[in-house]
Design brief:
Elements lengths: L2 E6 L3 E7 L8 E8 L19 E6 L3 H14 L12 E2 L2 E3 L9 H17 L5 E6 L2 E7 L4 E9 L1 H11 L17 H28 L4 E5 L3 H4 L8 E2 L3 H14 L2
Parallel strand pairs: 1-4, 6-9, 7-10, 10-11
Antiparallel strand pairs: 1-2, 2-3, 5-6, 7-8, 8-9
Bound molecules: adenosine-5'-diphosphate, the ligand CC(C)(COP(=O)(O)O)[C@@H](O)C(=O)NCCC(=O)O and potassium ion (K).
Adenosine-5'-diphosphate binds next to helix 3.
Protein name: Type III pantothenate kinase
Organism: Ramlibacter tataouinensis
Family: Belongs to the type III pantothenate kinase family.
Length: about 260
Amino acid sequence: MAFLAIDVGNTRLKWAMYAQPRPGAALLAHGAEFLENIDKLAEGPWARLPQPQRMLGCAVAADAIKRRVEEQMEEIWDVPAQWVVASAAEAGLANRYDHPTRLGADRWVAMIGAWHRMLASGPARPMVVVMVGTAVTVEAVDATGAFLGGFILPGHGIMLRALESGTAGLHVPTGDVREFPTNTSDALTSGGTFAIAGAIERMVKHVREHCGEEPLRYMTGGAGWKMSPHMSMPFELVESLIFDGLLEIARHRFTG
Ligand SMILES: Nc1ncnc2c1ncn2[C@@H]1O[C@H](COP(=O)(O)OP(=O)(O)O)[C@@H](O)[C@H]1O
Ligand SMILES: CC(C)(COP(=O)(O)O)[C@@H](O)C(=O)NCCC(=O)O
Ligand SMILES: [K+]
């Protein structure tokens, strides 16, 4: 029973086809497309895949984008599109957001993936789950599985574009991350990186003080590999956190 998992962010669509809708299932194929290229999925990377019997996705891009993804599926397959909406509780997690359904589905699914990854290797502990994509999100989860709350920050690209468009003298190429930057490129690149690192480390402190225990630290997202070397405390980089969460939810929904 092939299972298609899809994560539609504000920059790219990521997809993965699994042999079964459950954690640990064999990965048959996977890929990523910038949103401007998603109308070619059916005739391109999806053309030679097996027909999935189930699909589950999370999408935070505009509804029109979600519709275009559904059209690509309809072109070649007969499978209902199911999109995750954050809820008050799912797969062991409780959601303390003021309005639980307003939490980004990608954030909710990544936390579910992280929670089950932790439980697979040891006892429950508090966690900080970071996603570095178009935006950066920094989530706090306690050892009972309660999502306490999280930060949303601009990602690297948005920070740079904001500075470029709001100033006259900051149109420069990408630089390197330096402790003491001595040119504009390095100053911008380092400023963005350490702004994100600082917010993340602050959340680790909040969780440590609130829960009285050192949190486990997970990082994911397309730009996670850029951030993780610059953290003053190590984060486990897990590229598949959203897919792990979708597999976990799929197990509950599709295999009872
Ligand atoms: N090879 C790459 N392709 C696409 N994005 C990349 C790549 N390397 C790093 N990035 C960064 O990852 C971000 C996209 O990450 P992603 O997790 O796909 O975002 P989103 O989920 O918001 O669409 C881009 O903003 C970019 O900064
Ligand atoms: C915070 C986000 C923009 C992150 O999007 P991404 O960087 O993954 O494209 C997305 O999760 C979102 O639109 N959330 C809804 C608002 C909220 O979570 O409070
Ligand atoms: K995302």
